[in-house]
Predict the 3D structure of the following.
Amino acid sequence: MHAFREQLGLADPAPGFLCGAESGGGGALLESRNPATGELLGRVRQATRADYETVVARAAAAFEKWRLVPAPQRGEIVRQIGDELRRAKEPLARLVTAECGKLLTEARGEVQEMIDIADFAVGLSRQLYGLTMHSERASHRMYEQWHPLGVVGIISAFNFPVAVWSWNAMLAAVCGNAMVWKPSPKTPLSAVAAQQIATRVLARNGHPDVMGLLIGEVADVGEPLLDDKRVPLVSATGSCAMGRVVGERVARRFGRTLLELGGNNAILVLDDADLGLALRAIAFGAAGTAGQRCTTTRRVYLQKGIAATLTAQLVKAYGSLKIGDPLAEGTLVGPLIDRAAVTGYERAITQAQSEGATLLCGGKALSGKGFESGCFVEPTLMQARADLPQLQHEVFAPITYLIEVADLDEAIRCNNGVPQGLSSALFTLNLRHAERFLSTAGSDCGIANINIGTSGAEIGGAFGGEKETGGGREAGSDSWKAYMRRQTCTINWGTQLPLAQGVVFDVGN
Ligand code: NAD
């Protein structure tokens, strides 16, 4: 048995639903396997539709009380969750690595992100500011204030099995919401471990049911969230295909969504770039996390003066990427999440080749010693023309296309010429080029960087993307507003009742 199981208090089977003192699950067992080794990590007794009712009902009841707790006191409880996460950082990171296959250093970074967003939320709990306005009417005061929404539904993807939840949960909590979390069935143990930490803190503070967890079939615990009027906001992170379903269904009942969906991110490198910086940023952005980040660099547009040089440097750098056990020192590329992802990788490469792309390096699934799980692939570089149809799609694997362009204008057109709009980056040492990329006529993405790559965002900024990436924003800046409802208040402290815009409606006495 892994030490982290004991350190995190994970039962076998672990509960598929958890809220306060109640936990369990009446459904079938779900196995969690390590994608690097194929080893069984543990099982979860999945939640059923009846368990869904229990958790949502308890969260709805908890909200009634939680919303009345002053925001700074809610912040104090979130501070305690952050402290518990600090204590659990190493075992939780090891579980994340075991379950989703990302490098241990990245998993530690993911848990650090949970701690960082908890800290951010604590400060925010004293800063849920509303504006005041000058009324056009004498002896009137106008201001706006923010109230919590109710029960927030959080749907998360496998590739950030705990951080995405905390981005939502810590903010939603200080804003005064209760919540229920439906994590990816591919990383259920990480979710149980994170939820147990939060539940322990909430319980000892007298609010055990504020955060609930549901692991089960989409039909039992995912789709009901979309139709449930007790859930005014559904925050969903995952593929564009999932987001399209979630967005439409929730809108049908006039619910709100916060969508964080697929990316198809590009790095643009101009002739005047620092090629050393560009090389490192492309290698990390494209091959890091085995190409399984929403911000992974999937397209690289190279201006023609440096295209041949940087292409050769990249191919050479790819030759030194160590693929293997994500826990081992020196490994840079771990496994894909499962064999289905490997099939998707192979299919995409074949498809790109049939459309005219050329393989520069990589291109194969790996087998043999150390790769017995069948989930390892070679990070792949392909040369392509800008009109390759395959460039329009996000394939969640380390496949990156290198495309030659004439100038910055063409590079920006290409950057913007896909349905997704998450992250983008330009490498240049020319101020005018940099500003042009960041201007209204530049990148159309939610994230636009200069001389750093597309992946590795900090929690202080609002995170999210445009177009089919869904338009949602999470984490820093004023993303908290998504978890609250705005109320405009006007107070008449005078003796007259003047109407706005000078309207007269005199009923006499
Ligand atoms: P996925 O879309 O397969 O699943 C995401 C979650 O949605 C899972 O919990 C899944 O069970 C749930 N789900 C699927 N259909 C549903 C439905 N009809 N109703 C309710 N829930 C449903 O995604 P994945 O493979 O886990 O993750 C990879 C994808 O996530 C990529 O496209 C990636 O770009 C995206 N992603 C985006 C961000 C972002 O912030 N923009 C972050 C991480 C991952």
Observations:
- The CA atoms of residues 303 and 405 lie 5 Å apart.
